[in-house]
Amino acid sequence: MGEAICSERDVALPRLYLLGQQKSGTTTMATALFQAGVVPMVGYYPHGNVPGYLLSMRANHSYTHLAGNVKESNLLAGVSSPTCVTPSCLGLMQQRWERKFVNFTNCAQDWGDTLLADFSTDNLPHGYRAHTLRAFYGTPASQRLILVVIMREPLQRFQSGFYWNFPPHLFGRPQQHKYAHNRTLGMELAMLRAALPPNYTSAASQWPRLVGVKHLDRWVRSVYALNWRPWLAQFHPSQFVALPMRWALEDVGRATQLVAERAGVVLRRQAHILGTGARHVGIAGGGDRLNPLAHPTLEQEGDTDAQTRAGLRWLATTYFAPDTEALAQLLARAMAQGLVLGGMREGSSSDVSRHLNATW
Fold it and tell me: Is residue 143 helix, strand or coil?
Protein backbone atom coordinates (compact mmCIF):
# COMPACT_ATOMS: atom_id res chain seq x y z
CA MET A 1 0.00 0.00 0.00
CA GLY A 2 1.26 3.48 -0.86
CA GLU A 3 1.71 6.16 1.76
CA ALA A 4 -0.67 8.73 0.27
CA ILE A 5 -4.37 8.99 1.06
CA CYS A 6 -6.45 9.51 -2.08
CA SER A 7 -9.96 10.97 -2.14
CA GLU A 8 -12.82 9.57 -4.20
CA ARG A 9 -11.93 12.22 -6.80
CA ASP A 10 -8.33 10.90 -6.93
CA VAL A 11 -7.01 14.00 -5.16
CA ALA A 12 -4.07 13.44 -2.80
CA LEU A 13 -4.80 14.42 0.82
CA PRO A 14 -2.43 15.07 3.73
CA ARG A 15 -1.68 12.01 5.82
CA LEU A 16 0.57 13.62 8.43
CA TYR A 17 -0.51 16.62 10.49
CA LEU A 18 1.94 18.60 12.62
CA LEU A 19 -0.63 20.01 15.01
CA GLY A 20 1.58 22.42 16.92
CA GLN A 21 1.60 24.47 19.03
CA GLN A 22 3.20 27.62 17.67
CA LYS A 23 6.47 28.74 19.30
CA SER A 24 7.27 25.17 20.27
CA GLY A 25 9.87 24.25 17.69
CA THR A 26 7.31 23.60 14.96
CA THR A 27 9.38 25.30 12.22
CA THR A 28 12.38 23.16 13.15
CA MET A 29 10.32 19.98 13.31
CA ALA A 30 8.53 20.72 10.03
CA THR A 31 11.87 21.36 8.33
CA ALA A 32 13.33 18.17 9.81
CA LEU A 33 10.39 16.12 8.52
CA PHE A 34 10.64 17.85 5.15
CA GLN A 35 14.35 17.12 4.87
CA ALA A 36 13.63 13.53 5.88
CA GLY A 37 11.31 13.09 2.89
CA VAL A 38 7.86 14.37 3.88
CA VAL A 39 6.29 16.66 1.24
CA PRO A 40 4.15 19.54 2.55
CA MET A 41 0.84 20.18 0.83
CA VAL A 42 -0.12 23.73 -0.06
CA GLY A 43 -3.17 25.40 -1.50
CA TYR A 44 -3.15 26.34 -5.16
CA TYR A 45 -1.95 29.87 -5.95
CA PRO A 46 -1.97 30.69 -9.70
CA HIS A 47 0.80 33.29 -9.46
CA GLY A 48 2.65 32.03 -6.38
CA ASN A 49 5.95 30.20 -6.04
CA VAL A 50 4.41 26.98 -4.78
CA PRO A 51 4.07 24.75 -7.91
CA GLY A 52 7.66 25.29 -9.09
CA TYR A 53 8.89 25.16 -5.50
CA LEU A 54 7.47 21.69 -5.07
CA LEU A 55 8.45 20.35 -8.46
CA SER A 56 12.07 21.40 -8.05
CA MET A 57 12.32 19.45 -4.79
CA ARG A 58 10.60 16.19 -5.67
CA ALA A 59 13.86 14.25 -6.10
CA ASN A 60 15.74 15.24 -2.93
CA HIS A 61 15.10 18.16 -0.61
CA SER A 62 17.38 17.07 2.22
CA TYR A 63 19.24 20.40 2.17
CA THR A 64 16.28 22.65 1.39
CA HIS A 65 14.54 24.93 3.86
CA LEU A 66 10.81 25.48 3.97
CA ALA A 67 9.33 28.74 2.75
CA GLY A 68 6.91 30.34 5.19
CA ASN A 69 3.92 30.03 2.86
CA VAL A 70 4.59 26.31 2.58
CA LYS A 71 4.79 25.56 6.29
CA GLU A 72 1.91 27.85 7.27
CA SER A 73 -0.40 26.89 4.42
CA ASN A 74 -3.48 26.86 6.72
CA LEU A 75 -5.31 24.35 4.58
CA LEU A 76 -8.35 24.18 6.86
CA ALA A 77 -8.84 27.95 6.92
CA GLY A 78 -12.14 28.85 5.31
CA VAL A 79 -13.36 25.25 5.12
CA SER A 80 -13.93 24.50 8.81
CA SER A 81 -16.19 26.09 11.39
CA PRO A 82 -17.56 25.12 14.80
CA THR A 83 -21.06 25.59 13.36
CA CYS A 84 -20.49 23.34 10.32
CA VAL A 85 -21.52 19.94 11.68
CA THR A 86 -24.25 18.67 9.36
CA PRO A 87 -23.41 16.18 6.58
CA SER A 88 -24.49 18.66 3.89
CA CYS A 89 -22.30 21.46 5.27
CA LEU A 90 -19.32 19.18 5.78
CA GLY A 91 -19.73 17.77 2.27
CA LEU A 92 -19.67 21.26 0.75
CA MET A 93 -16.64 22.25 2.81
CA GLN A 94 -14.85 19.06 1.81
CA GLN A 95 -15.27 19.91 -1.87
CA ARG A 96 -13.82 23.38 -1.26
CA TRP A 97 -10.96 21.84 0.71
CA GLU A 98 -10.06 19.40 -2.07
CA ARG A 99 -10.12 22.20 -4.66
CA LYS A 100 -7.10 23.67 -2.86
CA PHE A 101 -5.07 20.67 -4.01
CA VAL A 102 -4.96 21.33 -7.74
CA ASN A 103 -1.24 20.53 -7.67
CA PHE A 104 -1.91 17.13 -6.11
CA THR A 105 -4.32 15.42 -8.50
CA ASN A 106 -3.74 11.99 -10.08
CA CYS A 107 -3.12 10.79 -6.57
CA ALA A 108 -2.61 7.07 -7.13
CA GLN A 109 -0.26 7.56 -10.08
CA ASP A 110 1.74 10.64 -9.03
CA TRP A 111 1.66 10.66 -5.22
CA GLY A 112 0.94 7.09 -4.15
CA ASP A 113 4.33 6.51 -2.52
CA THR A 114 4.77 10.00 -1.04
CA LEU A 115 4.07 10.94 2.57
CA LEU A 116 2.16 14.23 2.26
CA ALA A 117 1.66 16.57 5.20
CA ASP A 118 -0.07 19.67 6.50
CA PHE A 119 2.46 21.52 8.66
CA SER A 120 0.09 24.36 9.64
CA THR A 121 0.22 25.00 13.38
CA ASP A 122 -3.20 26.55 13.85
CA ASN A 123 -5.23 23.37 14.29
CA LEU A 124 -4.71 22.03 17.83
CA PRO A 125 -6.47 24.86 19.73
CA HIS A 126 -9.47 24.61 17.39
CA GLY A 127 -10.89 21.34 18.63
CA TYR A 128 -13.79 21.37 16.18
CA ARG A 129 -11.27 20.77 13.39
CA ALA A 130 -10.71 17.25 14.73
CA HIS A 131 -14.34 16.44 13.93
CA THR A 132 -14.03 18.23 10.58
CA LEU A 133 -11.01 16.17 9.55
CA ARG A 134 -12.57 12.89 10.60
CA ALA A 135 -15.64 13.76 8.53
CA PHE A 136 -13.55 14.82 5.51
CA TYR A 137 -11.57 11.57 5.45
CA GLY A 138 -14.27 9.16 6.57
CA THR A 139 -13.58 5.62 7.72
CA PRO A 140 -11.16 3.89 7.28
CA ALA A 141 -9.00 6.68 5.76
CA SER A 142 -9.16 8.81 8.93
CA GLN A 143 -7.65 5.90 10.85
CA ARG A 144 -4.47 6.19 8.74
CA LEU A 145 -3.75 9.78 9.73
CA ILE A 146 -0.52 10.51 11.65
CA LEU A 147 -0.95 13.28 14.20
CA VAL A 148 2.22 14.84 15.63
CA VAL A 149 2.08 17.27 18.54
CA ILE A 150 5.25 19.02 19.71
CA MET A 151 4.97 20.57 23.18
CA ARG A 152 7.02 23.20 24.98
CA GLU A 153 7.07 24.08 28.67
CA PRO A 154 3.84 26.14 28.92
CA LEU A 155 5.19 29.31 30.54
CA GLN A 156 8.09 29.51 28.10
CA ARG A 157 5.72 28.95 25.18
CA PHE A 158 3.41 31.68 26.46
CA GLN A 159 6.29 34.15 26.83
CA SER A 160 7.64 33.32 23.39
CA GLY A 161 4.20 33.69 21.86
CA PHE A 162 3.80 37.12 23.44
CA TYR A 163 7.17 38.39 22.23
CA TRP A 164 6.49 37.00 18.77
CA ASN A 165 3.37 39.17 18.54
CA PHE A 166 4.90 42.14 20.38
CA PRO A 167 8.68 42.25 19.76
CA PRO A 168 10.42 44.39 22.41
CA HIS A 169 12.53 46.21 19.80
CA LEU A 170 9.33 47.58 18.21
CA PHE A 171 7.85 48.88 21.47
CA GLY A 172 7.05 52.60 21.39
CA ARG A 173 7.83 53.06 17.70
CA PRO A 174 5.84 55.71 15.79
CA GLN A 175 2.30 54.58 15.07
CA GLN A 176 2.89 54.42 11.31
CA HIS A 177 5.81 52.03 11.76
CA LYS A 178 4.99 48.48 10.69
CA TYR A 179 4.27 46.24 13.70
CA ALA A 180 4.72 49.13 16.16
CA HIS A 181 3.02 48.47 19.51
CA ASN A 182 2.78 49.68 23.10
CA ARG A 183 2.23 46.32 24.84
CA THR A 184 4.46 44.95 27.60
CA LEU A 185 4.46 41.50 29.15
CA GLY A 186 3.26 43.07 32.41
CA MET A 187 0.26 44.56 30.61
CA GLU A 188 -0.52 41.18 29.06
CA LEU A 189 -0.52 39.54 32.49
CA ALA A 190 -2.75 42.28 33.95
CA MET A 191 -5.22 41.71 31.10
CA LEU A 192 -5.26 37.98 31.79
CA ARG A 193 -5.91 38.54 35.49
CA ALA A 194 -8.98 40.55 34.58
CA ALA A 195 -10.23 38.29 31.78
CA LEU A 196 -9.62 34.71 32.92
CA PRO A 197 -11.76 32.62 35.29
CA PRO A 198 -10.37 32.51 38.83
CA ASN A 199 -8.99 28.96 38.66
CA TYR A 200 -8.20 26.08 36.31
CA THR A 201 -11.40 24.17 37.07
CA SER A 202 -13.50 27.17 36.06
CA ALA A 203 -11.38 27.68 32.97
CA ALA A 204 -11.90 24.06 31.93
CA SER A 205 -15.67 24.40 32.30
CA GLN A 206 -15.64 27.55 30.13
CA TRP A 207 -13.09 26.30 27.61
CA PRO A 208 -15.23 26.51 24.42
CA ARG A 209 -15.90 30.18 25.13
CA LEU A 210 -12.32 31.03 26.10
CA VAL A 211 -10.89 29.47 22.94
CA GLY A 212 -12.93 31.91 20.88
CA VAL A 213 -11.58 35.03 22.62
CA LYS A 214 -8.84 36.34 20.33
CA HIS A 215 -6.80 38.24 22.93
CA LEU A 216 -6.53 35.08 25.06
CA ASP A 217 -4.89 33.12 22.24
CA ARG A 218 -1.35 33.16 23.68
CA TRP A 219 -2.66 31.70 26.94
CA VAL A 220 -4.98 29.22 25.21
CA ARG A 221 -2.14 27.65 23.24
CA SER A 222 -0.22 26.83 26.43
CA VAL A 223 -3.10 24.99 28.10
CA TYR A 224 -2.21 21.64 26.58
CA ALA A 225 -4.57 19.18 28.26
CA LEU A 226 -7.66 21.13 27.22
CA ASN A 227 -6.29 21.41 23.68
CA TRP A 228 -5.63 17.67 23.46
CA ARG A 229 -9.03 16.42 24.62
CA PRO A 230 -11.16 16.98 21.49
CA TRP A 231 -8.49 15.41 19.28
CA LEU A 232 -8.24 12.27 21.39
CA ALA A 233 -12.04 12.12 21.34
CA GLN A 234 -12.02 11.87 17.52
CA PHE A 235 -8.88 9.81 16.80
CA HIS A 236 -7.39 6.69 18.35
CA PRO A 237 -4.44 7.32 20.70
CA SER A 238 -2.20 5.09 18.56
CA GLN A 239 -2.36 7.71 15.77
CA PHE A 240 -0.55 10.32 17.90
CA VAL A 241 3.13 11.03 18.40
CA ALA A 242 3.74 13.51 21.23
CA LEU A 243 7.13 15.22 21.19
CA PRO A 244 8.49 17.20 24.15
CA MET A 245 10.29 20.08 22.47
CA ARG A 246 13.76 19.82 24.02
CA TRP A 247 13.80 16.05 23.54
CA ALA A 248 12.84 16.46 19.86
CA LEU A 249 15.31 19.24 19.08
CA GLU A 250 18.27 17.52 20.72
CA ASP A 251 18.22 15.07 17.82
CA VAL A 252 15.65 15.81 15.12
CA GLY A 253 16.65 12.63 13.30
CA ARG A 254 15.63 10.61 16.34
CA ALA A 255 12.29 12.43 16.37
CA THR A 256 11.60 11.90 12.66
CA GLN A 257 12.43 8.19 13.00
CA LEU A 258 9.98 7.90 15.88
CA VAL A 259 7.29 9.30 13.55
CA ALA A 260 8.42 6.96 10.76
CA GLU A 261 8.29 3.89 12.99
CA ARG A 262 4.87 4.74 14.34
CA ALA A 263 3.47 5.37 10.85
CA GLY A 264 5.26 2.48 9.17
CA VAL A 265 6.93 4.69 6.57
CA VAL A 266 10.53 5.21 5.48
CA LEU A 267 12.15 8.61 6.18
CA ARG A 268 15.79 9.69 5.82
CA ARG A 269 17.48 10.07 9.18
CA GLN A 270 19.47 13.27 9.70
CA ALA A 271 20.95 14.25 13.04
CA HIS A 272 20.22 17.94 12.53
CA ILE A 273 18.83 20.54 10.14
CA LEU A 274 21.19 20.80 7.17
CA GLY A 275 22.15 24.16 5.75
CA THR A 276 24.28 27.19 6.57
CA GLY A 277 24.22 29.43 9.62
CA ALA A 278 23.59 28.48 13.23
CA ARG A 279 20.72 28.26 15.64
CA HIS A 280 21.26 27.70 19.32
CA VAL A 281 18.41 25.35 20.19
CA GLY A 282 20.39 22.27 21.15
CA ILE A 283 20.68 20.93 17.60
CA ALA A 284 24.00 19.22 16.99
CA GLY A 285 26.06 20.41 14.03
CA GLY A 286 25.43 23.33 11.71
CA GLY A 287 21.76 24.19 11.49
CA ASP A 288 19.78 26.88 9.76
CA ARG A 289 18.93 30.03 11.71
CA LEU A 290 15.24 29.29 11.49
CA ASN A 291 14.01 31.89 13.95
CA PRO A 292 16.23 34.99 14.04
CA LEU A 293 13.70 36.81 16.27
CA ALA A 294 13.95 34.32 19.12
CA HIS A 295 13.67 36.07 22.48
CA PRO A 296 15.70 35.02 25.56
CA THR A 297 14.03 32.50 27.83
CA LEU A 298 12.75 33.48 31.25
CA GLU A 299 15.89 32.01 32.83
CA GLN A 300 18.11 34.05 30.51
CA GLU A 301 16.36 37.34 31.21
CA GLY A 302 17.78 39.20 34.16
CA ASP A 303 15.86 42.46 33.99
CA THR A 304 12.24 41.33 34.37
CA ASP A 305 10.61 43.47 37.07
CA ALA A 306 9.26 41.92 40.26
CA GLN A 307 5.61 42.57 39.40
CA THR A 308 5.94 40.80 36.06
CA ARG A 309 7.69 37.86 37.68
CA ALA A 310 4.89 37.64 40.24
CA GLY A 311 2.38 37.65 37.41
CA LEU A 312 4.20 34.83 35.66
CA ARG A 313 4.24 32.79 38.87
CA TRP A 314 0.48 33.38 39.22
CA LEU A 315 -0.10 32.21 35.65
CA ALA A 316 2.00 29.08 36.11
CA THR A 317 0.55 28.17 39.52
CA THR A 318 -3.09 28.90 38.74
CA TYR A 319 -3.36 27.40 35.25
CA PHE A 320 -0.28 25.75 33.81
CA ALA A 321 0.67 23.54 36.79
CA PRO A 322 -2.81 21.94 37.15
CA ASP A 323 -3.07 21.64 33.38
CA THR A 324 0.28 19.81 33.23
CA GLU A 325 -1.02 17.41 35.87
CA ALA A 326 -4.16 16.85 33.80
CA LEU A 327 -2.03 16.41 30.67
CA ALA A 328 0.15 13.80 32.38
CA GLN A 329 -2.95 11.82 33.37
CA LEU A 330 -4.37 12.13 29.86
CA LEU A 331 -1.13 11.03 28.17
CA ALA A 332 -0.57 8.15 30.58
CA ARG A 333 -4.02 6.74 29.72
CA ALA A 334 -3.45 7.31 26.01
CA MET A 335 -0.02 5.65 26.08
CA ALA A 336 -1.64 2.49 27.38
CA GLN A 337 -3.67 2.54 24.14
CA GLY A 338 -0.76 3.17 21.80
CA LEU A 339 0.11 6.88 21.92
CA VAL A 340 3.86 7.42 21.59
CA LEU A 341 5.58 9.96 23.83
CA GLY A 342 9.10 10.86 22.73
CA GLY A 343 11.73 9.59 25.18
CA MET A 344 9.43 7.46 27.31
CA ARG A 345 7.60 4.16 27.35
CA GLU A 346 4.42 3.51 29.28
CA GLY A 347 4.30 4.75 32.86
CA SER A 348 2.15 6.35 35.51
CA SER A 349 0.91 9.92 35.31
CA SER A 350 3.63 10.85 37.81
CA ASP A 351 6.25 9.33 35.50
CA VAL A 352 4.85 11.27 32.54
CA SER A 353 4.80 14.50 34.55
CA ARG A 354 8.46 14.09 35.55
CA HIS A 355 9.41 13.28 31.97
CA LEU A 356 7.63 16.33 30.56
CA ASN A 357 9.17 18.67 33.11
CA ALA A 358 12.63 17.34 32.20
CA THR A 359 12.29 17.30 28.40
CA TRP A 360 9.94 20.00 27.16
Answer: helix
Terminal Cα distance for the chain, rounded: 35
pLDDT at 287 over 50: no
Q: What is the DSSP letter of 351?
A: H
Taking only the tens place, the pLDDT of each residue in 288-309 is 445 555 666 665 565 678 899 9
CA 299/CA 184 separation, integer angstroms: 18
CB of 57 within 8 A of CB of 64? yes
Rounded Cα gap, residues 94 and 182, in angstroms? 41
**Contact (Cβ atoms closer than 8 angstroms) between residue 235 and residue 145:** yes
The strands making up 240-244's β-sheet, listed across from edge to edge, are 39-40, 116-118, 16-20, 146-151, 240-244, 340-341
What 3-state DSSP class applies to 118? strand
Neighbours of 159 (CB within 10 A): 24
Report whether 346 contacts 335 (CB < 8 A).
yes
Which DSSP category does 181 fall into?
Answer: B
Amino acid sitting at position 178: K
Average pLDDT value for residue range 275-293: 45
Which residues are paired to 16 by β-bridges?
117, 146
> Structure pTM?
0.89
b vs e for 188-205, b when ≥16 Cβ sit within 10 Å of the residue's Cβ? bbeebeeebbeebeebbe
pLDDT tens by residue, 258-272: 999 988 888 888 766
